[in-house]
Each structure stands twice: as C-alpha cells, then as structure tokens.
C-alpha cells in the first residue's frame, strides 16, 4: 500500500484556545516522557502543532530511525488562565473518564481487530503530579491525511469514490467466524466494527495495569451500566439526557403555536421515550453489541495519496449500542429527513451503493442478523433523535414515538438462540 509523500494537515481550528493550550504545556517534559517510553531513544518535535475542535496534536520524531509518534492534548477552555488550580477545576472526573474510555477503546480495536487505529504507547489522564501539566496520550502517528487536506471529496473520480466507499463498508463488516474474547465475540481476520461486539451495553474502560474492561455508559446515560438489555440502555438515557440548547427552550420572544408545540416535543421526549419502550419493549436475543464511533465521518478517517484508508481516529464518547442504533449512527452515506423523521440514503446514489457494498461484505459472515438488514429501522431513527437531542437540535420527537408505538415490533436478533436451538 502506498504512503503519502508528506503530511498535509491544515489544523483548521488554530485559535486563542489552542495557542493557550500550547503555551501551558511543558513540551520539554513531554519529550522526556516519550524518550523513557521508547527505551531512552532521543526525539524531537516534527513541525508545529495542529488543532482540531477539542485537541491539539504534535508529531514527535525519534532521531535514530525516523519513527514518528503523535501526542494529543485536550484544548483548555477560553476562560482558563495559566493558574494550575484553574486547570484542575476544568479537568473534571467526567473529562478524565472520557479520555480513559477512548484509550481503552483504541487499545481494544488495535489488539483485537484489523481496523487501523493508532497504537497507544503511553498516557497520563490526570493533572496531579503530571510534569507535562496537561493530560496527554502518546500514540502511533499514522502516515495519512484527511480527505479534506487532500483536496476534498469534490476532486474524486467515480473509481476513487467507489474505493473509499468499499473501504468504509469493510470497516463496518467482517468475513470470518467468531472466536471468544474476554470481553466480547470478535473476528480475528478483518474484524470490523459491526462484529467487534462486547457482551454488554457500556463503555470500554481501563482496568488494572492498562487492561481493558467494560464499564458504565457515558455522561448522557448518567454513567450508569453496563447493561445486558437494550431497554435498560434507552431507560438510562431517558433518565439522564439533557437537551443541548436550553436557550431555545427559554426564548419566548417569537413563540407561536408551532414553536410551542416543538418545544413541548423536546421537553417531553425523554419521558415519552421511556413510556414507549415500556409499551413496546425492544429487548430481544442479541449476540453482543457493537461499539459506536460517535463521529464516524470523513474528517476522522485518514487516507494515503492513493485514497486507501490507513487510519480511523477520534474515538471519544464511543460506547456499545443496539445494532440498529449502531447502523444509524455510523452510516455516513445517509441523511435524516426531518419531515418524515426517517433516515434515508443519499440522493446521489452513493447511499444505495453503500448498502450494496455492505451486503457484499456480509456474504461470508455468520451473523444471525446482518447490518444491512437494520439500516432504516425505527430504533435507528430513535438513536439519531437521541443524538439530536443531546446536540440541541429540535425535531418533532413525539411524531417519531407515535410511529414507534403504532408499529408491531418483534425483535429476534439471533434466530438460532431465539428459537431455542
């Protein structure tokens, strides 16, 4: 597989916050930490830092061989000062949990699948006693670029689009038989996200001595779990989720009947969701739960110069979910129709072709229920609306739940188990 001749990272979010983060970091201490982790080999920084929406990253090069590592550091808030006590207040237990869960998820995928995630070499997730002054993770620097840094999707010809689409499909699906892992069922060869399942609904967390275990779901679920059934997943979210745009609910200046109805749909969504799940329980026989990448879009996929996928990055907030929710949240070739409250394929035929690519990848799998059969399900639509709620996007949630309650839904995710065979 070819590799890019150079990095083309743009750092689209370089601003005062990222500059303040750079200034607060003790980069000399970080070089020392990397040197210790890599057997005393000397290293230097390769170029300036680059900023994303939530982190800055910087490349490190080891002098005797050119090996590249990457350090990633969370961006401090705009209101913070250089006072370490202010940083300590900002770095909450919730932020630390999110970082540790991401590390655990990346370790799991790197060790147990062929999905190209960066290998983790070292990390500090606390600030107390941290010579670098901010939490950090040191990882493999994948030699790739985002598609947007290579010129964007608009420069691709049909053959290149097809190749990318099939590569992304292969990341979601696998081809071989199951083996048992301590946490989950997974496949040894080209194990992909839909089948790299864990046996409970929760987040992957770091255990003793850097091991990986299953822990609670993230903040929108109140850090509850792990759970064994899908109904508990939805109940937990309904009990703890908060709408992400409270200004919309408070602003009454331009209220009319339509807006008031929409606001009521937002306010009542969690309680109505809980009632809907009680009336039509989604729990069925399911052979494990896939892990959802919560931002599985092109800006978190790295390509070489031939547009081969060489990396999948940014696993923050990942957690396992029912297969329908996984399918809806990780299908980048679909759109959500706010009028019908239903996920539909892209209008340019790529969405339909993507489903065909998924079906081709599934031909040799032993899955009782295939990923391609779950796209467009109503539980997937509910999963999307849960995300919209967290982000502060108001839609007619009640209409969707009316549709859910009116449908006769029977779930049997593993026909062999459900038939008692």
Structural summary, described in words:
This protein is α+β, with helices and mostly antiparallel strands and about 425 residues long. Helix content is about 35%, strand content about 15%. It has helices at about 15-25, 25-35, 85-90, 95-110, 160-170, 230-240, 245-250, 255-280, 325-330, 350-360, 380-390, 395-405, 415-420, and strands spanning about 45-50, 55-60, 70-75, 120-125, 135-140, 145, 180, 185, 205, 210-215, 290, 300-305, 310, 320, 335, 340-345. The strands form six sheets. A five-stranded antiparallel sheet has the order 1-2-3-5-4, with helices on both faces. It has a three-stranded antiparallel sheet with strand order 6-12-13, with helices on one face. Strands 7-8 form a two-stranded antiparallel sheet. Helix 11 (about 380-390) packs antiparallel against helix 12 (about 395-405). The radius of gyration is 22 Å and the shape is globular. The model is unreliable at about 175-190 and about 410-420 (pLDDT under 50).
């Amino acid at each position: 597989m070819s590799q890019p001749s150079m990095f083309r990272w743009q750092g689209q979010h370089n601003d005062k916050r990222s500059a303040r983060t750079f200034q607060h970091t003790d980069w000399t201490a970080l070089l020392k930490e990397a040197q210790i982790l890599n057997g005393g080999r000397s290293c230097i920084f390769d170029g300036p830092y680059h900023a994303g929406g939530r982190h800055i990253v910087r490349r490190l090069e080891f002098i005797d061989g050119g090996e590249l590592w990457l350090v990633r550091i969370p961006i401090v808030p705009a209101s913070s000062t250089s006072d370490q006590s202010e940083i300590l207040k900002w770095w909450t237990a919730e932020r630390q949990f999110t970082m540790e869960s991401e590390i655990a998820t990346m370790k799991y995928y790197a060790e147990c699948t062929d999905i190209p995630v960066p290998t983790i070499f070292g990390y500090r997730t606390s600030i107390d006693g941290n010579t670098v002054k901010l939490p950090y993770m040191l990882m493999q620097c994948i030699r790739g670029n985002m598609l947007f840094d290579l010129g964007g999707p608009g420069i691709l010809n049909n053959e290149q689009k097809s190749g990318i689409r099939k590569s992304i499909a292969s990341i979601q699906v696998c081809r071989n038989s199951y083996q048992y892992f301590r946490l989950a069922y997974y496949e040894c060869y080209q194990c992909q996200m839909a089948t790299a399942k864990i046996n409970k609904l929760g987040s992957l967390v770091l255990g003793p001595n850097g091991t990986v275990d299953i822990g609670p779901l993230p903040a929108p679920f109140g850090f509850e779990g792990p759970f064994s059934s899908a109904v508990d997943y939805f109940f937990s979210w309904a009990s703890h989720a908060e709408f992400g745009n409270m200004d919309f609910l408070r602003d009454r200046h331009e209220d009319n009947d339509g807006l008031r109805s929409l606001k009521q749909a937002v306010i009542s969504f969690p309680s109505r969701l809980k009632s809907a799940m009680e009336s039509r329980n989604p729990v069925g026989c399911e052979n494990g739960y896939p892990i959802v990448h919560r931002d599985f879009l092109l800006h978190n996929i790295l390509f070489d110069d031939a547009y081969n996928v060489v990396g999948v990055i940014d696993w923050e907030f990942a957690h396992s979910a029912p297969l329908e929710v996984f399918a809806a949240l990780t299908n980048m070739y679909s759109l959500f129709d706010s009028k019908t409250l239903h996920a539909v394929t892209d209008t340019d035929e790529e969405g339909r072709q993507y489903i065909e690519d998924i079906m081709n990848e599934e031909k040799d799998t032993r899955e009782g229920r295939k990923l391609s059969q779950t796209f467009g399900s109503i539980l997937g639509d509910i999963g999307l609306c849960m995300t919209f709620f967290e982000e502060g996007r108001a839609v007619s949630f009640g209409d969707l739940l009316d549709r859910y309650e009116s449908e006769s839904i029977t779930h049997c995710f593993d026909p062999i188990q459900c038939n008692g065979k």
